């Protein structure tokens, strides 16, 4: 019998009972997509795993075997967690790990040996778009509407084409109709980053990948799950589930723990976050002139809200909000690392200036949102006066 | 194309070029004798290529396209039509 619970394996029972499934984020923190603090149980499992599982799990000596035991347990825990979040019954052998989204996508795509082309939208993450290009296959870029939804009346050669798509866009929150896309006959590589641990992803995918940071796991771990019904075969051996001989067992243990302890709270958290973002949007629409929202207001991730504030510099706004105690992200050119506006905003034809990406951490309080509304309203008014508007 | 007014916003970064355009629209609406009018914005801020067309969609102006600056200088000219 495989041990499937990480906390039960390495975290002392006396510490488990009193802990919740996530860590409270610092006051004013509204950039969950950029990473979350580790939950107490996760932090404890992470540090225990660093003590116990620093040796290469492929080694035959007892220290290697100790790492392998923890790695296998975490793999089983993730298989169970993803099974319960998607309804696809996974065995341990159908779950894999990579150190980056690009590596994960490269490997997942290479496993679809029968496909001759890839279809993806222009609003996928840049790592995944790069991975599609890496494959050398023909690429078809599917158009999306002004909310980022794929047009279901597509005309590509579905039989031989792999659809690479986010379950929901991580910048604007819009969810795709995965069932509708599966009904068209596509094989799909679904990027469920920011979805696993937030919403029910459902069973309509051939291969699923997700960055563990989305559910409060550590950075540098991307999980891949292969649907047993998919026409897919591992392109290269992956001992213990690890791609590219880069086993990072402590990160895997932390990622598995984070999802395991979060799962009982997903539904409540989603309801709370959806209500908070809906309230936030309504208040900003009513109180602040010339703010435009991007993304589907209904069929969306619960914790994400994206807006552009006309006549304000994104950089000035983000910095001023930070000075006043609120941490948010932006897709404006002046804030992005590349000095280019968010490719997602550009693809949907949204206004890219003064952009604010809000993503609520788990357990976000009503008071945080109310405080944000007050500060945001004041900050926008002042910056507009400074800019001469 | 007969451009009634060129706004030279080269060297100015977002949000200044769009603010200048919005100000021109306000002026145009104030002028009760205004007829449909084409305004050109000269800008070299990279965000202008997305944000001037997006602003036009939001504010009921018509974005007519891009052109070379009439002075042969740097940057891009963005043509916008205001009409009631």
* Overall number of domains of chain A: 2
Question: What is the string of helix and strand elements of chain B?
Answer: EHEHEE
Classify the fold: give the CATH topology of the largest domain in chain A: Aspartate Aminotransferase, domain 2
- Unreliable stretches of chain A (pLDDT < 50, length at least 5) are none
Features:
heterodimer; A: 389 residues; alpha/beta; Aspartate Aminotransferase, domain 2; Aspartate Aminotransferase, domain 1; 2 domains; seven-stranded mixed sheet; three-stranded antiparallel sheet; 12 helices; globular; B: 84 residues; alpha+beta; Translation Initiation Factor IF3; four-stranded mixed sheet; 32% helix
Report on the structure:
Chain A has 389 residues and is of the alpha/beta class. Chain A folds into two domains: 38-265, Type I PLP-dependent aspartate aminotransferase-like (Major domain) (Aspartate Aminotransferase, domain 2, 3-Layer(aba) Sandwich), CATH 3.40.640; 266-387, Alpha-Beta Complex (Aspartate Aminotransferase, domain 1). Chain A contains twelve helices and ten strands. The longest helix of chain A is centred in the first third of the chain and has 25 residues, at 62-86. Chain B has a single domain (5-82), classed as 2-Layer Sandwich (Translation Initiation Factor IF3), CATH 3.30.110. Helices cover 32% and strands 29% of the residues of chain B. Chain B has two helices and four strands; from the N terminus they run βαβαββ. Chain B has helices at residues 16-30, 48-59, and strands at 5-8, 37-43, 62-67, 76-82. In chain B, strands 1-2-4-3 form a four-stranded mixed sheet, covered by helices on one side. The two termini of chain B are 20 Å apart.
């Amino acid at each position: 019998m495989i041990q499937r619970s990480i906390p039960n394996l390495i975290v002392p029972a006396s510490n488990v009972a009193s802990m919740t499934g996530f860590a409270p984020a610092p006051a004013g923190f509204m950039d969950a997509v950029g990473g979350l603090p580790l939950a107490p149980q996760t932090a404890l499992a992470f540090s225990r795993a660093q003590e116990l599982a620093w040796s290469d799990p492929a080694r035959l000596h007892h220290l290697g075997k100790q790492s392998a035991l923890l790695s296998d347990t975490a793999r089983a825990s993730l298989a169970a967690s993803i099974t319960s979040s998607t309804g696809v019954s996974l065995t341990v052998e159908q779950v894999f790990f990579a150190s980056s989204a690009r590596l994960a996508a490269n490997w997942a795509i290479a496993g679809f040996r029968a496909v001759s082309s890839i279809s993806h939208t222009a609003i996928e993450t840049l790592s995944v778009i790069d991975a599609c290009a890496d494959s050398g296959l023909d690429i078809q870029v599917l158009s999306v509407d002004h909310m980022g939804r794929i047009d279901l009346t597509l005309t590509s050669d579905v039989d031989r084409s792999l659809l690479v798509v986010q379950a929901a866009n991580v910048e604007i929150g819009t969810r795709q109709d995965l069932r509708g896309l599966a009904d068209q006959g596509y094989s799909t590589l679904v990027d469920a980053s920011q979805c696993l641990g937030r919403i029910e992803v459902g069973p309509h995918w051939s291969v699923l990948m997700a960055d563990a940071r989305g559910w409060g796991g550590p950075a540098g771990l991307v999980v891949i799950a292969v649907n047993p019904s998919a026409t897919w075969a591992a392109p290269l051996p992956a001992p213990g589930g690890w791609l590219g001989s880069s086993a990072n067992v402590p990160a895997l243990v932390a990622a598995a723990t984070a999802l395991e302890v979060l799962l009982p709270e997903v539904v409540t958290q989603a309801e709370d976050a959806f209500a908070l973002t809906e309230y936030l949007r309504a208040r900003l629409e009513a109180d602040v002139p010339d703010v435009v929202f991007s993304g589907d207001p209904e069929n969306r991730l619960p914790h994400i809200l994206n807006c552009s504030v006309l006549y304000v510099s994104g950089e000035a706004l983000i910095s001023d909000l930070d000075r006043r105690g609120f941490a948010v992200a932006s897709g404006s050119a002046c804030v992005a690392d590349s000095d280019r506006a968010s490719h997602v905003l550009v693809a949907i034809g949204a206004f890219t200036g003064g952009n604010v990406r809000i993503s609520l951490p788990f357990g976000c309080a009503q008071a945080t949102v109310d405080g944000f509304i007050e500060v945001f309203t004041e900050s926008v008014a002042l910056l507009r006066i400074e800019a001469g508007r | 194309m007969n451009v009634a007014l060129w706004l030279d916003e080269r060297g100015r970064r977002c949000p200044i070029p769009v603010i200048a355009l919005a100000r021109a629209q306000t002026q145009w609406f104030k002028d009760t004798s205004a007829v449909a009018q084409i305004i050109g914005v000269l800008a070299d801020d990279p965000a202008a290529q997305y944000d001037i067309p997006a602003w036009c969609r939001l504010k009921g102006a018509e974005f007519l396209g891009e052109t070379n600056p009439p002075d042969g200088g740097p940057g891009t000219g963005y043509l916008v039509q205001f009409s009631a």
